[in-house]
Design goal:
By secondary structure, the chain is α/β, with parallel strands linked by helices. Helix content is 36%, strand content 11%. It has a 7-stranded parallel β-sheet, sandwiched between helices.
């Protein structure tokens, strides 16, 4: 790497905000001899452009000895982030490669077949006459031979040790704050009927109860894993010996090979007395049930899949909150790591936080607090009648309860939601809509660019603490790692707050609805970046319109409908603003119970709502699905 080239490699025609100063600081950090530079840059500061400048300083083939690595990798855990890179004209020299399942075979009769299920994967000795036209192998060849290869972190880790994607001079990891957690997730081994093709061929013990006198649950799990691996090897070898396989058999073979590799990795690490990895085992339902084998602090896994893949690393994120803690979590020596802080140049007035807390969202208080938050959302819809909103529901349980309540309040025709299966489709539909829809989302706090009118306000419904029922979380808390617990939650909140303000002239409001968020800010104060502390310190409690579903629908020209619509009038109540307590106690609440209309089945009757025979209307998502179902081309769309 030649650090002096970094500023000149910036791909945009001009600098924005603190980008020029940031590149100078990154250059100086690498020039000082650091192998790894952490770049802590606020959301919306153009981290992808900074990443490209660092990649441009990588050693070139013409300047390298045969044994020296050249060129650069760009990787990110987020698929949406990779999509943004692929669509950015300023980053056109980053050659994107995705996994095989993202490409379709181009052979006649195979156009609906993913490449990982194509004839080349099904038939022994298959010689594809048009492999040079295969979209996957074409993209792979371009990425592997190009100066800058871009891929998801999952693909990057899977290609560790491959001849195609060898070690390079520079590796840039965007959205790197969750690297340890992503590594733990990728290294977790899920043994269940869905994930183990030979499940019915093995007897699954209760690893806690059946441990021997000199064993614990992990030791008993290791013995089971040895026998399972032997069964999986025999099943895989039988499939490999066949001249031709069906698509289903190819999937079984590939999963068996993947399983054998996972089990072998675990056994190797388990037997290595010097390994830094601590393994925990979950089997809540006992004998015959699923087992999850999870690593803590998977430094060894990251060494093989990430740190051995390059000579110099730039890790970019808005929320690497503690350099030392981050380095410990990913197996780096802080002495060889520099931290570059990028100044936040967006006006504080454009990114306000508002305290609209309605109570605690812990499990034991949720029944009481969720209805209050639903009423709050109706008032916020009236406050922002012509602007799109995003609800960070935290979980599908909370999302379902909120949508149901909003239906009871008669405002579902302005609401969109998603399930696990249609997450991306509903997100794109919401972004494409010209109406002020309110999107009730789950796990969309990161890697979502909602610049401008794509979204002007959002609600954080719950402090995003990690689940204490997860054995890894429980183990860390048992070891007293409460700072880690609060830091990971704060990181997610900061990420969420950055979704709606993406440029210096952009603006968007973030409303905090859970009391625990205020407590979190106090507990994690030592790890809070100064620019976000400024937002917290400037937080106020707003005056909001009174609870009025008609005012909430004013921007979409619709009337409230549903069990709670009686007695409501069109028009806002903005002339009689109220404090935050009014939202929970207003007598205009829903009169009907949950049985009237079901989850998200009620709402306004505007032009975008599909009215049912009982006079109720659906959410935007349900209305869209109904229109596709009734469309004459629904069989083509796959919804018929």
């Amino acid at each position: 790497m030649d650090p002096d080239r970094i500023p000149a490699e910036f791909p945009a025609p001009g600098f924005r905000g603190a980008q020029e100063r940031a590149l100078a600081d990154v250059r100086d950090a690498f020039a000082a001899g650091n192998d790894v530079v952490l770049v802590r840059a606020p959301t919306g500061s153009g981290k992808s452009l900074l990443a490209r400048a660092v990649m441009g300083a990588a050693r070139e083939v013409a300047d390298a000895a045969p044994s020296q690595p050249t060129d650069a990798y760009y990787t990110t855990p987020q698929i949406s982030q990779l999509d943004d890179v692929a669509g950015d004209d300023l980053l056109s020299d980053l050659k994107v490669i995705r996994g095989k399942s993202n490409y379709d075979c181009v052979l006649p009769g195979e156009h609906d077949t993913p490449v990982d299920r194509a004839p080349c994967a099904r038939e022994q000795g298959f010689d594809c006459s048009i492999k040079h036209r295969c979209p996957y192998f074409s993209d792979r060849a371009i990425a592997s031979s190009g100066r800058f290869a871009a891929m998801t972190l999952a693909y990057f880790m899977r290609t560790a040790g491959s001849e195609t994607f060898r070690k390079r001079d520079v590796v840039v990891i965007d959205e790197a704050h969750g690297l340890a957690e992503w590594a733990e997730m990728y290294a977790t081994i899920d043994l269940s009927p869905e994930r183990v093709p030979v499940w019915d061929d093995v007897g699954v013990p209760d690893v806690e109860r059946d441990a021997g006198d000199d064993e614990d649950a992990l030791d008993r799990t290791a013995r089971f894993v040895e026998s399972l691996r032997d069964v999986a090897k025999r099943a895989k070898d039988e499939l490999v010996g066949r001249p031709e396989l069906s698509r289903e058999e190819v999937a079984r073979r590939d999963r068996l090979q993947e399983l054998i590799s996972e089990l072998g990795w675990f056994l190797e690490d388990y037997r290595d007395l010097d390994s830094p990895t601590t393994w925990v085992v979950d089997q809540p339902d006992g004998e015959g049930s699923a087992i999850a084998i999870k690593p803590l602090d998977p430094a060894r896994y990251l060494r093989h899949t990430v740190w051995d893949r390059g000579e110099k690393f730039a890790l970019l994120s808005a929320t690497i909150l503690s350099k030392d803690a981050f380095c410990r979590g990913v197996g780096l020596d802080p002495a060889n790591v520099a931290l570059v802080d990028v100044e936040h140049t967006f006006p504080l007035s454009n990114r306000p936080l508002y305290d609209v807390t309605q109570g605690s969202m812990t499990y034991e208080h949720r029944d009481e607090t969720v209805p209050k938050i639903a009423r709050l959302i109706v008032r916020l819809m009236a406050e922002h009648p012509d602007e799109k909103g995003l609800i960070h529901a935290h979980s599908y349980d909370i999302a379902g309860r909120l949508v149901e309540r909003l239906g009871e309040f008669g405002v579902a025709s302005r609401v969109r939601r998603h399930a696990r299966a249609n997450r991306d489709a509903e997100l794109e539909a919401w972004k494409a809509s010209s109406d002020p829809e309110v999107f009730v989302s789950v796990k969309m706090e990161e890697a979502l660019d909602l610049e401008g009118d794509l979204c002007r306000w959002q609600v954080v419904c719950k402090a995003p603490y990690r689940n204490t029922n997860d054995s890894r979380v429980a183990r860390r808390l048992a070891d007293g790692q409460w700072a880690w617990y609060h830091r990971t939650a704060l990181r997610t909140v900061i990420q969420a707050c950055g979704r709606v303000v993406r440029a210096p002239d952009d603006y968007g409001a973030t409303y905090l609805a859970d009391d625990s968020l205020l407590d979190l800010f106090d507990r994690a104060a030592a790890d809070t970046p100064p620019w976000f502390r400024d937002q917290v310190d400037a937080m106020t409690t707003p005056d909001l319109p009174a609870f009025d579903p008609a005012a909430a629908l004013a921007g979409i020209d619709a009337d409230p409908s549903g069990p709670g619509r009686a007695g409501r009038r069109r028009g806002g109540s903005r002339s009689t603003p109220s404090g935050r307590s009014e939202g929970a106690n207003d007598s205009n609440g829903a009169a009907g119970g949950r049985a009237a209309g079901g989850s998200g089945s009620t709402g306004g009757s505007g032009s975008n709502g599909a009215t049912g025979g009982d006079g109720t209307t659906r959410t935007r998502s349900e209305a869209d699905a109904e229109r596709r179902k009734d469309h004459p081309l629904s069989d083509v769309w796959g919804d018929g």
